[in-house]
Amino acid sequence: MGVIIVDGSTVRSFVEDSAAFDKAVSERFASLDLNGDGVLSRAELRRALETYRLLESHFGAEVVALPADLARLYDSIFEQFDVDRSGTVDLPEFRSEMRRMLLAIADGLGSVPIQMAIDDDGDGGTSFLQKAADLEAAKISKAATTTHE
Ligand SMILES: [Ca+2]
């Protein structure tokens, strides 16, 4: 468990850094694609939402819901990802929805930095917001080095 500080611009510049963002998305997608068939099934996506607790950790709200409500919630999230209604989520669909969600988070955060506790994913991966914070820290230290030279 680590603590990071992020604001809207941290998240936005991560999403707009397409090399870093695409790499993070591809890694996350590969770790979620449990049977390695190149697409995420409804079950794989649901497991991801449960494992990574996207809803709580990314939207800052504790989600307390009845199982039936949760099932509906997971279904509606799946429909959002599965844009072409093929019944599975492929990498481009996953990437564009992650982009949309993160930009929505960036809008929500605005310019007020918030402190956030980040769970280790347990699979060696780090969360998107952690990567966003790392990227910004790297840029700041690079800028500081340049200034001092
Ligand atoms: Ca799969």
Automatic annotation (TrEMBL):
Annotated GO molecular function terms are: calcium ion binding
Q: Which InterPro entries match?
A: EF-hand-dom_pair, EF_Hand_1_Ca_BS, EF_hand_dom
Pfam families, A to Z: EF-hand_7
Record-linked SUPFAM superfamilies: EF-hand
Please report the stretch or stretches of sequence annotated as the EF-hand domain: 20-55, 69-104
Q: Which UniProt keywords apply?
A: Calcium
Q: What is the recorded name of this protein?
A: EF-hand domain-containing protein
